[in-house]
Amino acid sequence: MHRSxxxxxxxxxxxxxxxxxxxxxxxxxxxxxxxxxxxxxxxxxxxxxxxxxxxxxxxxxxxxxxxxxxxxxxxxxxxxxxxxxxxxxxxxxxxxxxxxxxxxxxxxxxxxxxxxxxxxxxxxxxxxxxxxxxxxxxxxxxxLxxxxxxxxxxxxxxxxxxxxxxxxxxxxxxxxxxxxxxxxxxxxxxxxxxxxxxxxxxxxxxCxxxxxxxxxxxxxxCxxxxxxxxxx
Length: 232
Known about the structure:
mainly alpha
């Protein structure tokens, strides 16, 4: 008896419930997922990435680099080098030369010559002074002055300027530009795009599809359970 009832009722109930639910799930859920989620991902996320990230990188980072770094280098480094180095050279070297050498020569040598030489060997020293000392002092001092002016000025102007203009400018232009253009662009294009394409697509395709299949399985189970309970 039980079997005959089940056989007579089942064909009339199952075809009416099962296709309806099945159609509803496939139509509504799939339409919702494909329309809303895909539209959301492709419209919002892609628009967001292209608009915000690209605008941010191009506007902020480029503006920052060009404005701040270039202004900083040109203002600070040039001002510092030209002001500090030149001030140092002119103040320290000139003060040192004029104060120490002149004081030393005028005070010590003159005192030594006038006191010791004139007193001790007036005749010999006069001959010695006029011959050797004057020649030596004039040659040595002039050579020293020439050496100082040549060496210091050549060294400062050649080395410092060459170093500053070559190293600093090369370093700034090479490192900053290379770093910004290589690292930032690589980071943006690699990380953001990889993240979006990998994570979002993986998440959507895995999670949503899993959800749909789970939900459909659940609905199938519910339908069959309901039918079985009803048949009992």
